[in-house]
Amino acid sequence: MIAQNVAFWSLAVAMVAAAYRLVTTQNVVRAALFLAVVLAGTAGQYVLLTAEFVAWVQVLVYIGAVVVLLLFGVMLTRAPIGAASGLDNDQRAVAAIVALLVLGALGAVLLDAFGDTELVFGEVRRSAEVADAIFGQYVVPFEVASVLLLAAVVGAVAMARRD
Amino acid sequence: MALNQFLLLSAVLFSLGVYGVLARRNSVLVLMSVELMLNAVNLNLVTFGAFHQDVLGQVFALFVIAIAAAEVGVGLAIVLVIFRNRADVDLDKVDLMKG
Which of A2, A134, B59, B89 has the smallest number of Cβ neighbours within 10 A? Predict the structure, then answer.
């Protein structure tokens, strides 16, 4: 349990620091790399939560595809690659207040509802059980998700092509 | 491990994402903040899946990951169209429909 807590807190500190830099940095490429750090930390937390399959999907889809896609977006919109100004608008103070209110509300509800409930891990859940759930009980949402992905790809190509 | 440490970490990440969406002007950075918020929600789903010892949380997290990939593809296509038409991705200047 101690080893798990050490792993949790070191990942958590790195994730929060990277997320804070992600929303405050004045360098677009660094922001994308900080996002990759946060996503990798989340994959580590999934391993701690015994969700290895989700952790690897996170690495493949988020870090492998989404971050690369965002970097392509940075490149194609000719965002300033080095340090730049004007990435933030002039409502930072209001945004910080709203974010702190969201954090306060969520934190109060969580502390009230779960207090110091312990997370106990029962028997090992195999990835095959995830597959059974997706292709058994949730096969219709799975097919709908595949149609949605197809529609998104067709829509993105139709919007982004030049003619 | 306490259940709350995962949930509070997720709440902190979500709030930072809210701040990023509200305070950023560059639309690619806003998309990154949205990804941060989706990621926080996924961490919640997997945590509750582990808490209830049910794979359902993982299944939902996988669906959210698939839909987030679709969202970022369509979002970047929209940003590219805006950039092509206006040569700028500053969200404060996209106010054509402002009353």
Answer: A2
